[in-house]
Structures are given as structure tokens and as C-alpha cells.
Amino acid sequence: MSKEQGGIVKAWENTVRKSQAIAKKRANSIFSTMSVAHVDDDNAGAPGLGEIYHAEKVLANGDFYTGHWAGNLPHGHGKYLWTDGCMYVGEWFRGKTMGKGKFSWPSGATYEGEFKSGYMDGKGTYTGSNGDTYKGSWVMNLKHGQGTKSFANGDYYEGDWRRGSQEGHGRYQWKNGNHYIGHWKNGLINGNGTMIWANGNRYDGFWEDGLPKGNGTFRWQDGSFYVGVWSKDPKDQSGTYYPSGSQAASFDWDPQQVYSVDLNDCIICPGEKISILPSQKMLNLPGLEAELLQKQSLWKPMKHTDASGRPRRRSVDGRVMNVAEKNSWDMDGDVTRDVDRKSTVDETLGNLQNEDLEPRGQRLRQMRLQPPKRQGETISKGHKNYELMLNLQLGIRHSVGRPAPTASLDLKASAFDPKEKVWTKFPPEGSKHTPPHQSCDFRWKDYCPLVFRTLRKLFKVDPADYMLSICGNDALRELSSPGKSGSFFYLTNDDRYMIKTMKKSEVKVLLRMLPAYYNHFRAFDNTLVTKFFGLHCVKLTGAAMKKVRFVIMGNLFCTEYPIHRRFDLKGSSHGRTTDKPESEINPNTTLKDLDLNFIFRLQKTWFQELCRQVDRDCDFLEQERIMDYSLLVGLHFRQTSFNRDAASESCTPNHTPSKSGDSGNEAARLSRADKDQLLFDPSRWETIKLGINMPARAEETVRRGDAEQLIGEPTGEFYDVIMFFGIIDILQDYDISKKLEHAYKSIQYDPTSISAVDPRQYSRRFRDFIFRVFAEDTD
């Protein structure tokens, strides 16, 4: 123990002895004022509390307080010593620890950081008595948000926390050099992630309760790898070994060694339990008791069952709460509030509900929306496209798994030749290069295979992960209806990739622009243009002789955030509204220009980068004579309370959100800082990229008069959103059919309102529109 700490303890012990003696002599008085000194005139008053002054107070139970005082309550900066050895030094507000402070335990553990209403809440550092140190976000005494933890044994974790445990995305580094990067749940490795051992071996795939479970790949340092379905039960384990180019095909290795040997040195350190929480250290102050009684009269009495007889559970600090209130912590780490019950969060922050409202009359509003449903129909046996899916998966597995030399990013012109394609026969009985299969006889074509292999490398796509996403045990999902072009769309089970069937003309356009497309992606990391990962064709043999061409693209909305609204924006007005009745519109409905009722406000640096990149992307598309593209926008509304009841109660997409009935459903009126802390997971900042995971404010607009007015007038009503956006449908050139469409529609409608215009005009109109839809957030 340091001299300073020893001095503090000694002084505290003396103070306790003195205070206990004074308490005995003055048993008829709760407080004894030892000394009083007025503070500066600038702080001489507190609203509703009277004069602020410095005081030293001794409580009847022996506790001791010294610091600023007002209205019989600690208010300002002060120190509180409990007789059990706990101590708090920091800021107070009306008798509660509020602001920055330090709490010390007799064991030697300390917390230094932000407090709210007696809780460790905000940014703070906890150092345990065993040497563990956590630094990061807290909500109501729980690690919640982004944080790092250094363990006494040398291990280290950095990432997401939820309700006190690792949950979300995080990185765990063991002292021996092993490390894991991926998803967690309830303090255990769970979901998709990568374990890398100190010897260079690694496992990429799915986990469950700390062990590999499901699709995964084990890779050796020499480049060989094993792909399969993993399970601790050997009966459920299956897979295929792929040797490196320099290794013989025979290899004696049991996948169960990963469970019995490799993972023995990858034990997660348990967390230290806090013996007593700051919020449990109640103060014996008459002024505070009166204030609490006044607040409690507004709340329901505490019972072990609620009015409906549902069980209630105790929170970490001993208070009782509804079991159903666990749902207050939603999947994104946000804290929401139901209007028909008082949750722990509401009780804790009740004194903040009417303070520090939004500046300049701006109001952040809360939405009530239906939870999005998973898109698509699973293609199972008996589906009309089941064999096509099998053919596609067989072909992808063959193309990606085929040995190939390491590709340089500097490709020769011959690699982009449209005639550069590889045909492979897939007979059902198998061949020298293909496995036997249960589908029909077909032929498989790879277009410009070297270019797309290099693009996948440029996009940092791991070949094994790519193969697992498309060709794993999970089936693809077919979207309910084909697009306007007649193309069909399929989604991989993990939502990473979208597969689109193509017309021959679209294939020609993509092959023609492929050199410029490749160079554009090499030059600009932040490009918003659609990513293409492969271009292929399946040709059925026999009587059908059917050809199906398709491209594999990145799914813009592959995110753990539910997408509540999606818009397809072109900058034209003719026919640019949804053709569905309001009753059929849901979060999966793609709305159009005239359905848009928001302006999206980005931070200055992101807005400037958006403008630069839209200019670059439009220049590229204009040079390639491309038109009819659009900006696909997805919105996740923070502070959303889902309505799981009648759809009539939820707001309709093209009037998002409805103003009627909102007042009774709004969340507690907190300050911007409080909302950011409770409702926004700080770890998301690490994954923000232009068009991906972008925090923004959506300002509601309203159209007055002209029904075809593209941008409505701002209303001053704001919503905190997470945005996803990118430029899609970039394979339509200004061919003869589009020229005829332009000539025909120009006679009937305003030529500036139609979509079919020449690429230069289209590019100019598109930019102008986007620069009006997006704006710099000056607040």
C-alpha cells in the first residue's frame, strides 16, 4: 500500500472513531455540523435547494461527508466515507452521485469515471482487487457498449459488452499469442469468428458456446485447409481436406484434435464479481429520503409479482424488476421503454426526464414499427429451382476450390478479354475434375475467372468463407418476386451475397466495362458502386438446352441491424412511387423517390466524402455510357419500439412516422449525451465506412401542393438512424431500346421527369438530387 493510500486510511479510521463518539453524545441529532465555509458567490445558489456552501457532516451511523452542500443534501463536489470502508470522491447532484467521480472498495478495487443517480454509468475504468482492469462504457453498473479488459493473467479483450458480459463483436488475445476475432454471446465465443493460433494455424467459421459448431474451415500455415461441418460429436463431423500445391493429397489428421488439443490453451478468463455496488450504498440523508418518497409515490409499489401475476426478477443491485423487462435491452444494445410499464432504466433516470432537452426546439422522435421479417423462400427439394441451385453451388465450389497461382493486382489486358472463359462439364456420375452429384447433367461457364478471383482478393474476401456462404449446407433463398427486368434474385443464408440472373445484354455490358470497373475499385476504396464477385453461366444439357447467366453481388443490407425502411432513388419523378397499397407495405418493401420523406444529415467530413465519391462514381458510369442506376438506401431507426400487435398501430412507410398518437409513446426525454450513451453502441464506429454503418440524423419532410415534388420541406422533426447505401443497377447502357423509350415518353410527359435519358443528363440529374437528399449536419 502506498504512503498516500495509508494516510487516507489512517485519516478515515480516525474520522470514524471521532464520528462514532460524537454520535453517541448527540443521539438526539442526526447531523452535527463540524465546520461551515461559504463557497464563492458564483456558486452561492442552487435552483430549489438554496445556498451552496462547504460543510463537514457526520451521520448517526458513523458515515462521514465533506464537501459542497445545499438544501440539506450533498450538491457539487464532495467526499463520502462509509463505515465499512467504501469511499466516494467526486460530483454530486441533489444528494446523488452524478457526474465524474471515484469509488473505492475496502478490498482495494476502484472505479473512476462517470456516475448517474448512484450508478456506474457512462465512461469509466474499474480496477479489481485481483488486478483485472476494464475501461469502457457502463450502463447501470453493467459493462455495456464498447470496452477493453486487461486480465491479471496477461489476457486481453477488446470489443462489445452487453449486460456485463462479452457480447457482439470482439477480439480476445491470450498471453500465449493465440487470439480470436468474431462474435460473442453471454461471455462465450458464439456465432461467426476466427481463431488464430500462435503457430499460424487458424479456424474460420461458426461457433456455439465456445466451440466450433456448424460450417467452418481449419487452415494450416502451409496453405492447405479442411472445409466441413464441425461438431464435438464425431458422428456429426464431416468435411473435405484440400492440400496446398506442394503437398501430397494423402493426409492423416482427425478434426477432433481441434477440440481435444488445440483449444486447451484457449480458456476465457472469468470476470470478477463486484461485492457491493455503488448504487447499493444508500445515504442516510433526510432531504434525500423526502425526495425519494416523492418519486416513489409516482411509481408502482415493489412486489415480487406484477399486476398480471407475472414473476419479477431482481436486478444486479438487488432491486426487483419484471422478467419481461429483459426485452428492454434490444438486439442492437439499445435500451427502449414500453409505455405500459416502468422499467429499471426509467426508474434510474426518472430525475432526468425533463432536463437538458434538445437545443433550439429540435426534437428527436421515437418510431413504432413492425419488426422486419426475413426475406425470401428457402429453396428446398421440390422447389422448381432446386436443381439450378445445386448446379450453381457445385460450379462455385469447383471454381473457387480449383488450384490457381497467386494473382497479382496488376492484370494483363488478356485477362479482360470477353472470350476469356472456362467451360466445365458436370456429369452426374462425376469426372476427373468434378465430383458425382444428384442433379442433372449440366455445363458450367466461368467468365474472366482471373479478373473476378483478383477482385475478390481486392475486396478482402476469403475463398473458404466465400465458398461456405454460397455452397454450405444451408440453402439459398429466393426473393418472392422477380425484379422489373425479369431477373430473379437469390440470397445466401448468411445474407452476405445476392445472386441475380442476367440477360445476355447485361453480361455483355459488364464484360465490356470490366477493365474500367476493375481500375475504379483499385483507385477508390470508398466507391459506392455495386461489388461483383463472380460472373457465371449454367447450361443444362439434353432437351431443355437452357442457359442461365448470373452474377454474384454483395448484399448492401448484410448487417445485424434490422432495416426498417429502404428506398430506391433515381432523381426522376415519373412513375417513381410504390404501386402497393399502404396495407401491404412493410420493412421489406422498396420505396421510391416520391415516397421519400426525409433529408439525411451527415457529419461534415462524411458529407464532404460523400459528395466527392458520388462525383467520381457518376463520372465513371457516364464514361461507360451507363444510365438508369439508382442509390439504394436502407435505414435502421435507433430508439425504435417495435409494435408486435395490430399493424394498424404502426406507421406506414410513405408517411414515416405518423404523427397521430406518437405523444403517448415517446421515450423518456433525455439529453443528447444520455441518448448517445444508452442507445448507441460505440463499437460501431470501428466499422463505419462510407455507405456502411453510418450514423446520421433523418429530418422529416412534408410535400405541400405539388404531388411530384421530389424533396419536401423540412419539418424540424429528427430521427437518429444508421444508414446503408450504395449505387446499384449499373448494367443498363443507353442502347436503342432506351433511346426509343426516351423519345416515346418525352412526347407524353415532361422529358426531365422520366428515367430514360442520355448518360450525361442522367448523371447530372442524379448528382443534383443526391446532394439535396443528403446535407451537412450543422447541429
Automatic annotation (TrEMBL):
<dbReference type="Pfam" id="PF01504">
    <property type="entry name" value="PIP5K"/>
</dbReference>
<dbReference type="InterPro" id="IPR027484">
    <property type="entry name" value="PInositol-4-P-5-kinase_N"/>
</dbReference>
<dbReference type="GO" id="GO:0016308">
    <property type="term" value="F:1-phosphatidylinositol-4-phosphate 5-kinase activity"/>
</dbReference>
<feature type="domain" description="PIPK">
    <location>
        <begin position="378"/>
        <end position="774"/>
    </location>
</feature>
<keyword id="KW-0808">Transferase</keyword>
<dbReference type="InterPro" id="IPR023610">
    <property type="entry name" value="PInositol-4/5-P-5/4-kinase"/>
</dbReference>
<dbReference type="GO" id="GO:0046854">
    <property type="term" value="P:phosphatidylinositol phosphate biosynthetic process"/>
</dbReference>
<keyword id="KW-0418">Kinase</keyword>
<dbReference type="InterPro" id="IPR003409">
    <property type="entry name" value="MORN"/>
</dbReference>
<keyword id="KW-0677">Repeat</keyword>
<dbReference type="GO" id="GO:0005524">
    <property type="term" value="F:ATP binding"/>
</dbReference>
<feature type="compositionally biased region" description="Polar residues">
    <location>
        <begin position="646"/>
        <end position="663"/>
    </location>
</feature>
<keyword id="KW-0067">ATP-binding</keyword>
<dbReference type="InterPro" id="IPR017163">
    <property type="entry name" value="PIno-4-P-5_kinase_pln"/>
</dbReference>
<dbReference type="Pfam" id="PF02493">
    <property type="entry name" value="MORN"/>
</dbReference>
<keyword id="KW-0547">Nucleotide-binding</keyword>
<dbReference type="InterPro" id="IPR002498">
    <property type="entry name" value="PInositol-4-P-4/5-kinase_core"/>
</dbReference>
<feature type="region of interest" description="Disordered">
    <location>
        <begin position="646"/>
        <end position="668"/>
    </location>
</feature>
<dbReference type="GO" id="GO:0005886">
    <property type="term" value="C:plasma membrane"/>
</dbReference>
<dbReference type="InterPro" id="IPR027483">
    <property type="entry name" value="PInositol-4-P-4/5-kinase_C_sf"/>
</dbReference>
<protein>
    <recommendedName>
        <fullName>Phosphatidylinositol 4-phosphate 5-kinase</fullName>
        <ecNumber>2.7.1.68</ecNumber>
    </recommendedName>
</protein>
